[in-house]
Amino acid sequence: MSEEVPPNPPPAIPPLVLPPLPRPVDAKKSGCLTWGLVGCAAGSVIVIVGLVFLMSNARQMMGWALTKVEDAVLMGCTADVTPAEKTEFREAFARFRTAATESKATPDQVKEIQEKATAAAADGKVTPEELRALTATLKKAAP
């Protein structure tokens, strides 16, 4: 019988030798992250200053907005509206504007007046009935 000879082992693969890794270079401290943080900080400061400005001028802006609403109503008055009705409306609106800027009128009252005035002036014509209704609402809100 013939003896079987074991197969030859595969040739040994020499170990893979890699060159040493370069030493990490110290990265500069300035980069995208730093400028991003600076930008966010600057944006935050701008927002805070804007909010402080709005809060300190809220009453003036409320008065300005109500004046624009009053002007829109008066400009839309038809020829049927008498000067006496316009004067009564102006006086009632002035009392309401004072109450609103001094925080004596509730936000709901301000919203109601704005909605009714905008609805009356929406079609570009404010009739005597609409003006009387607005005046009555103003007198109820700020007697």
Unreliable stretches covering 5 or more consecutive residues: none
- Number of distinct helices: 5
Radius of gyration: 39 Å
Q: Would you count the extended β strands for me?
A: 0
For the termini, the CA-CA separation is 128 Å
- The SSE order reads HHHHH
Query: What gross morphology would you assign?
Result: rod-shaped
- What is the overall pLDDT average? 83
Polypeptide structure, described:
- The chain is mainly alpha-helical and 143 residues long.
- The chain has a domain of 83 residues.
- It has 5 helices and no strands.
- Helix 2 runs antiparallel to helix 3, helix 2 packs parallel to helix 4 and helix 4 packs antiparallel against helix 5.
- The longest helix is centred in the first third of the chain and has 25 residues.
- It is rod-shaped.
- The termini are far apart.
Short description:
With 143 residues, this protein is mostly helical. Helices cover 64% and strands 0% of the residues.
Question: Helices, strands, pairings?
Answer:
Layout: H1 32-56, H2 58-75, H3 83-101, H4 107-121, H5 128-141
Helix pairs in contact: 2-3, 2-4, 3-5, 4-5
Key attributes of the depicted protein:
0% strand, rod-shaped, mainly alpha, 143 residues
